[in-house]
Design brief:
There is one protein chain. The chain has 256 residues and is α+β, with helices and mostly antiparallel strands. About 2% of the residues have low confidence. The chain has 5 helices and 13 strands. A 12-stranded antiparallel β-barrel has the order 1-2-3-4-5-6-7-8-10-11-12-13. Helices cover 16% and strands 48% of the residues. The chain has one domain: Beta Barrel (Porin).
């Protein structure tokens, strides 16, 4: 029931704020063929749970459209019906929040399986900037609900350099947060770590993307992002950070 309600609210909000009847403009048909950027990137992220280490990985980079399919770094999906300045989208998200607690006594706790967020969303490219709105349910063990809102602007600089400031927040319900950051009474008895149960929480974030063209087709993208973790996460005995920091630098080929 909660899942249906969250999806219904998402669709209603998109319809009210971006309906062509209000905006006077609707989305064009999806472009045929491949448009966008594909390359390789170095991603880094700090660890927020005790016993975990910061990670640096070399992974493919993808931000492109191919007919109705799209990839946006960590979000993938299919465009369905036109709505406002974009489409209603069926989306999935790569999420690395799963982990195996390490170090005594945390290694006596259960492993937190990597989530698989699946849901609905929309990307609205308006005259006022770009809006990303997504609602997910974790298809794995937590079965929790998540939502994300992001606003992105574009700033043109000399030599065709572009800046993309981003602000937004994510929401996670108590089922999701208790699975990843809670400690059950059984785990507490086994490990000695204090039991912890929490409610839902929202974490605001801000980021900047810098796009530097090398020539007609090759581009370097750099992202720096900081998320201020919800108190319901920070207060967990498994967490030792107040911020989640992400960064990447990528070399991409641009398709038109």
């Amino acid at each position: 029931m909660r899942k249906c309600l969250l999806y219904s609210i998402l669709i209603l909000c998109v319809w009210v704020f971006f309906n062509p009847a209000h905006s006077g403009q609707s989305a064009d048909s999806p472009p045929n063929g491949l448009t966008g950027d594909i390359g390789i990137a170095v991603f880094s992220q700090n660890a927020i749970t005790k016993g975990s280490a910061s990670s640096t990985q070399i992974l493919p980079y993808a931000y492109f459209d191919y007919d109705r399919f799209f990839a946006r770094i960590d979000t993938f999906g299919i465009k369905t019906i036109p709505i406002g300045y974009g489409y209603l989208e069926v989306v999935g998200k790569y999420n690395s929040e799963g982990y195996a607690p390490k170090g005594t006594p945390y290694n006596l706790l259960n492993q937190r399986d990597t989530p698989i967020p699946l849901g609905l969303g929309t990307f609205q490219l308006t005259p006022f900037g770009a809006f990303f709105v997504h609602a997910y349910q974790d298809a794995t063990a937590s079965k929790g609900l998540m939502g994300e809102f992001t606003y992105a602007a574009q700033v043109e600089l000399p030599m065709s350099v572009k800046l993309y400031p981003l602000i937004g927040f994510d929401y996670k319900d108590k089922r999701y947060l208790n699975y990843f950051y809670g400690v059950s009474s059984v785990e507490s008895l086994r490990s000695g770590v204090s039991a912890y149960s929490t409610s839902d929480g929202s974490s605001p974030f801000a980021a900047i993307v810098i796009e530097v063209p090398l020539n007609e087709h090759w581009i370097i993208n750099t992202l720096i992002k900081q998320k201020w973790l919800a108190s319901t996460i920070v207060n967990s005995p498994l967490v030792n950070e107040r911020h989640l920091n992400n960064a990447f630098i990528s070399l991409n080929y641009h398709f038109e």
